[in-house]
Task: structure prediction
Amino acid sequence: MKCPEVREELPAYVRGEQPTLAVRRHLSTCEGCREESARYESLAGALGSLQSMTVEPPSGLKHALVAIPSNQGRLGAVRTHVTRHRRRYVGGAAVAVAGTAGALLLRRRLVAA
Ligand SMILES: [Zn+2]
Result:
């Protein structure tokens, strides 16, 4: 088996599938593919921890959404509310954006590798 064939299979092994004998043999002799495999494993671990990360919504968000009067246009009411409580929402949005940026960075590294 050649390196490109082995590397194509690597993501499946990180997800828990058993490598074939040919792949195991190749990995035992090819340092480059072993390193690639280790990179996949560390990325999978990092992405797994991102998936389980939760972000608390700004306090009062649920109450505020429920309290929006139905006779007012919902979008307009949300805009008014967000304008009034801008600082809290910007804080919450910054946390969400930071998480997304981290995921994109990892993804880019995965593609570039
Ligand atoms: Zn190789």
Observations:
- The chain has two domains: 1-53, 54-113.
